[in-house]
Design brief:
Helix content is 56%, strand content 9%. It has a 4-stranded mixed beta sheet with strand order 2-1-3-4. The chain folds into 2 domains: 76 residues, Glutaredoxin; 121 residues, Glutathione S-transferase Yfyf (Class Pi), Chain A, domain 2 (Up-down Bundle), CATH 1.20.1050.10. The longest helix has 25 residues. Helix 1 links the parallel strand 1 and strand 2. The chain is of the alpha+beta class. Helix 4 runs parallel beside helix 7 and helix 7 crosses helix 9.
Length: 226
Amino acid sequence: MEKIGKSKNTFKLYSLKNNCHSHSLNIRAILNWSQLEWEDIRLSDEELTKQLKEPNNFEFNKLPVLEYKNTFFSQPIAIEIYLARKLKLMGANIEDEYSIMSLLSSKNDFYSKLLPIIVPADEKQLEAQENNLKDFLNNFLPLTLKAFESRIKIKEGKYALGEKLSLADFFYGIFLYVIIKHPLRKILLEPILIENAPTLNNLMDRLASEEFKDFYLKIYNFDSLL
């Protein structure tokens, strides 16, 4: 890994190799879509541990971190908003910004529900795994998808918030698409999406096949889990 702190006008995204498709997922997609000059730097656990033993610019000692013009930005949602503002992806008005911020906040709801199911942290979570899965499938996911469906302003050929692509589309077409339509989860989760949010399902498929096609072909590998 090259020494940190040498960039001038190039964005550098630092993330963990074994966790590069979770919190950094949308950041990587935004940078790829933007066609800005950027570097995708993925550290091993050993490299990160070594880096943290020395003076470094990784605020809170967490990744992902975005570097630009020798300034380091931390916290993934804050980084997404920073990039979205630079690229005019925050919608047309304050109501659009609210909708986007609300969607981004819901990521934590998904993580808090999914992580105990996918990787139980202890014996208690392991024992509750089956019940947690049932709750996710029967309650959390249908309710959340219905809420998302009610927000979408699109007509055929339009985006989540109307006429222009926004950070909301990255949430639906990248973050939510990977959660629901990953090959290991699609059979189980996609029918719930189609039943509760058919317009959203169509939008997600169109975004993945058109706007974000290059990202899925070149950057994201569906062989990896979240």
